[in-house]
Amino acid sequence: MRNDSLRHKGLRNQLAQQLSERGIQSAHVLEAIRVIPRHLFLDKTLEAHAYEDRAFPIGAEQTISHPYTVAFQTELLEVRSGMKVLEIGTGSGYQSAVLSFLGAEVFTVERQLELFRKAEVFFRTFQWKPKLIHYSDGCKGLSKYAPYDRIVVTAGAKEIPNALLAQLSIGGILVIPVGENQQKMTVLERKGAKEFHKTTYGDFQFVPLLNSTEGLVR
Ligand code: SAH
Fold this sequence. Notes:
Blueprint: H1 6-21, H2 27-35, E1 56-59, E2 62-64, H3 67-77, E3 84-88, H4 94-101, E4 105-110, H5 113-124, E5 132-135, E6 148-153, H6 162-166, E7 168-178, E8 183-190, E9 196-204
Parallel strand pairs: 3-4, 3-6, 4-5, 6-7
Antiparallel strand pairs: 1-2, 7-8, 8-9
Helix pairs in contact: 1-2
The chain binds S-adenosyl-L-homocysteine.
């Protein structure tokens, strides 16, 4: 495992400060940004830029989300310690490390084999790890461990997969970016068996949430 350093910690403090100035309010989320070494989730060649608020390639034509986006989605999730959280789109694993740091029991799903394997190896030696990394199509959710208190989708969905709604507990929250070229951050709170309360926020740009056969990189 590569090292963390005082310099990296200093850069993380600056990044947390920037995110707070942009409107992230949760002290827990900002603490996660200050603690989780994002540079370890990136290729070594990108290390010097890891604490800029930017997205970077992580392989298989995918990207790690902007820190602001991670913080924004995490804040909307209102995660409390002990909650069961499903993440669709493991990617680099950074978002699931943030959720694990917050005390969630994280189940994360990735459909690109290369990224799934990389995340499995990475988390063997990393402190804040998901409970399970699963290789499958996240549009179907992960019914075996449902229901979930929280579900977060980290890829842009053309429409909200029904399976995710079905696997959310009553009182649970789903955070999902919805749209084709740009996505509206969408929050669905499950009020009852068939009752959802929807709130939408600003525009974001995610890589697409793909179904089981689209765009697999081998
Ligand atoms: N949460 C990630 C963001 C990665 S980008 C991070 O912190 O780095 C979005 C990820 O969603 C990509 O890795 C992509 O392969 C994955 N993805 C897209 N469609 C998916 C699907 N149907 N099921 C599971 N993962 C999917």
